[in-house]
Amino acid sequence: MRDRISNSRAPLFVASALTAATIGLLPTGAAFATVATVDAVASTVITPAAETPSAVLAATPWETTSAKDQTGANIPLTDANVSNYAGWAYYNTNGTFAIYNTDDTPKIKGDWSVTPDGSSRTLVAKDNAGNTLFTRVVPITVLTNTNFTYRVYPTAGNTAVYYDIIHTPTTHAEPVISPSAVLAATPWETTSAKDQTGANIPLTDANVSNYAGWAYYNTNGTFAIYNTDDTPKIKGDWSVTPDGSSRTLVAKDNAGNTLFTRVVPITVLTNTNFTYRVYPTAGNTAVYYDIIHTPTTHPEPSAPIDPDPTDPTDPTDPKPIPTDNGSGTQPAPATNTGSAGSLAQTGAEAPSIGLILGSIATLLGGAALMFRRLTGRSGNAG
Questions:
Q1: Is the separation of the CB atoms in 166 and 150 below 8 Å?
Q2: Cα 133 to Cα 112: distance, rounded to the nearest angstrom
Q3: Are strands 246-252 and 232-240 parallel, antiparallel or unpaired?
Q4: 210: which DSSP letter?
Q5: 343's torsion region: left (phi>0), alpha (psi -120 to 50) or beta?
Q6: Strand segments (E) across 241-371
Q7: Conformational region of residue 168, where left means phi above 0, alpha means psi within -120 to 50, and beta covers everything else
């Protein structure tokens, strides 16, 4: 389902604060915007002559190949304590980076740096618009041409428990993933919303409730969006800009006529988070709501979408119930009173000729028998 578009080493996708707890990135607070303090650790930084630690890190792509805990024990990369750090990392010489999950789906991107002595690495994760999502610093324990290892502490302030995340050079080509492929890769569910202050807004709030629901973006460029109760909302065509900065919806009716076009900026687009921004007042960008979606396995509802259920030319539209002179009530069914205006009985509702003749014969026979009995009785009475 992925669209493949040739691109440079920096792929077209956006980062998410919700993916902050990923390769080498443990959030330090709710805002994910604080700079972590690097604890002094023994490190091994061996670089060839005239090569800086930064040059060594940028010289090759890196693959997470193993992990160890503070006792030196090997920790499987499937272990929950380290699995979020496993993946592919690409540090570009221009100071940008991109990190992917092991299944080649995008994780984060932004800017990177290494201290001149190679003792720590800094990542500045950014969204698609270039805004900083968070800054994270981790101590480097090993940095050579064949080994890049950084240390993470699962509990802030506790340096007695840690995991060393070990990387080795790889020839794995950097994934090329277009924003449209990311959006079409999964159905999406509206799971939360935030305002411009970062405060959580309930999806029942009138400012955001209209955006809550299930969204299905098809690879053929069509979409369907449903309300949370599975009732249809809108359908039509969709697109995402090549840089992933905005999404366009062209809502259409059943005849294919355009009802409206809506363009919203995208702030996050990864395999685990799709967030767009809406401004309640046109021209005022100081007040906004971020509508946050996450992947879902909710099957697409089968109900057809009809943007205009009152269209008299659409045979699929439900017809109004007849009313009694505009009173709003359905008239009672007509009854057959036997008057001249009654409908004639036909077909299965009409008695057959044979049944009528048989009934007449029966009546006549009964009358004759009654006559004989009566006459017989009168002859014996004297």
A1: no
A2: 13
A3: antiparallel
A4: G
A5: beta
A6: 246-252, 258-269, 274-278, 289-295
A7: beta
Q: Which residues of 238-260 are buried (b: 16+ CB within 10 A; e: fewer)?
A: bbbbeebbbbebbbbbbeeeeee
3-state secondary structure of 380: coil
Joined tokens for residue 199? 């405060």
d(CA 100, CA 13): 11
Instruction: Provide the token pair at 205.
Output: 């709030």
**Rounded-to-integer distance, Cα 138 and Cα 39, Å:** 8
Q: What is the pLDDT along the chain (382 residues), one digit of tens a residue?
A: 334 333 444 343 434 433 433 444 433 333 333 334 445 565 555 555 458 999 999 999 999 999 999 999 999 999 999 999 999 999 999 999 999 999 888 888 999 999 999 999 999 998 777 888 899 999 999 999 999 999 999 999 999 999 999 999 999 999 888 899 999 999 999 999 999 999 999 999 999 999 999 999 999 999 999 999 999 999 999 999 998 999 999 999 999 999 999 999 999 888 889 999 999 999 999 999 999 999 999 999 975 555 555 555 544 444 333 333 332 333 333 333 333 332 233 233 344 444 444 544 554 555 444 444 444 443 333 3
Name, in order, each residue with C-beta under 8 angstroms of 351's C-beta and a sequence gap of 6 or more: none
Q: How far apart are CA 270 and CA 133, in angstroms?
A: 14
Residue 274 neighbours by CB under 8 Å, 6+ apart:
182, 183, 188, 266, 268, 292, 293, 294
The tally of CA atoms less than 13 A away on the side-chain side of residue 343 is 8
* Cα atoms in the Cβ-side hemisphere of radius 13 Å centred on 217: 24
pTM higher than the cut 0.90: no
Tokens 């050079």, residue? 169
Alpha-carbon span 277 to 251, nearest angstrom: 18
SS3 122: strand
